[in-house]
Design brief:
The chain is α/β, with parallel strands linked by helices. The protein has 10 helices and 13 strands. The radius of gyration is 20 Å and the shape is globular.
């Protein structure tokens, strides 16, 4: 009998789900039976990627952003009782799932309540330090308290220099056994030939996703090159339409997105960590607009800019002219790290 492994990414944009794709594929290749557990667009994406796998809907965290970035942290604090309740519901659901499906191991990507004392439980995160401004020490401490309930932590980055996550994913103190597994990406670099001048990749919770989308539709209407615009809206059916000089998709499956990124000269996107890993794997030039008020994305954008990889600006200040100043940046680089999945899965 194949051991059953529950893989449960957080539904916060699409990043947590997409970086679980190579892990799910590796589990299948190593003769494990995978059950997917999540909610919302994260669950929908994985159901589309792995239509033959069993999937379970978990209680939603219902995370949304404030319309003003400066109010982001305040809104998270306000929503914290709702978040704690969701985690408690999640823990109850996991207990029932383990018993009903005879689960042998758990891989949770940032879902704080998806663990069990009875079976090996892994927590995937690139945030060993959770940045929140002057309260970073507190948010990191709370995060560490939840992480200690797991048997192991996998960090998708290089342990030494060079690395992508900077101080987010590197610390001198580890509460549980921690392994750096290298940057994770579902993509492979291919010599497709460049056919698109600009690829826009949007994702993330509302309302900020829509706010940036509306701004870019206005700003890019005078762009002279060919634009592919992926809205990052997971729906039952893929839709494609033309808007002035853009070909607009509501979403793309992994295969089409891999091909489109490989065929694009420049990528305009948020600086979410999974996007950073994907673009590094494909060695692309990019321009980042971090989500307003999200300290992690703001830090990553600045961190990668200081290293001369990728320029950035905040959402309010973006102008089309900024895309013309790319000559001083070398683009993202892949560290060619091969993950030893068989060794990682020995935990189960």
């Amino acid at each position: 009998m194949k051991k059953k492994i529950l893989v449960a990414p957080l539904n916060w944009g699409l990043g947590h789900a997409t970086r679980c794709i190579p892990i799910i594929s590796a589990l299948i290749e190593n003769n494990y039976q995978v059950i997917i557990a999540s909610d919302g667009v994260a669950l929908l994406l994985l159901q589309k990627e792995f239509p033959n796998l069993s999937s379970i809907e978990l209680p939603s965290y219902n995370v949304t952003y404030a319309k003003k970035g400066t109010l982001f942290k305040l809104k998270l604090i306000k929503d914290s009782p709702k978040l704690i309740k969701a985690i408690k519901n999640e823990k109850r659901a996991i207990k029932n799932i383990i018993e009903a499906h005879d689960i042998s191991g758990i891989i949770s990507d940032n879902r704080l309540g998806v663990y069990s004392k009875k079976i090996p439980s892994v927590f995937i995160t690139h945030q060993l330090n959770v940045l929140s401004g002057i309260t970073t020490w507190f948010s990191t401490k709370i995060h560490s308290k939840f992480m200690k309930r797991f048997n192991a932590c996998w960090v998708p980055d290089n342990e030494g220099d060079p690395n992508l996550s900077g101080k987010l994913g590197h610390t001198n103190s580890f509460e549980i056994p921690t392994t750096y597994i290298g940057p994770l990406s579902r993509f492979t670099k291919k010599n497709e030939g460049i056919t698109n001048d600009l690829l826009v990749l949007l994702s993330g919770p509302e309302p900020q996703r829509t706010m940036l989308e509306d701004k870019l539709f206005v700003e890019l209407k005078n762009y002279s090159g060919r634009i592919i615009f992926v809205r990052g809206v997971m729906e039952k059916e893929q839709t494609i339409f033309t808007k002035s000089n853009m070909t607009v998709y509501n979403y793309m499956t992994s295969d089409l997105l891999e091909k489109t990124i490989n065929q694009s000269r420049l990528i305009l996107s948020r600086s979410g960590y999974t996007t950073v890993m994907d673009l590094a794997k494909l060695k692309k030039h990019a321009f980042f607009i971090p989500t307003p008020g999200q300290f992690e994305q703001e830090y990553l954008a600045i961190h990668l800019s200081k290293q001369g990889f990728v320029p950035n600006c905040n959402q309010d200040n973006f102008k089309i002219e900024l895309l013309e100043n790319m000559g001083n940046y070398k683009g993202l680089k892949n560290f060619d790290y091969e993950v030893d999945f068989k060794k990682l899965f020995n935990l189960f």
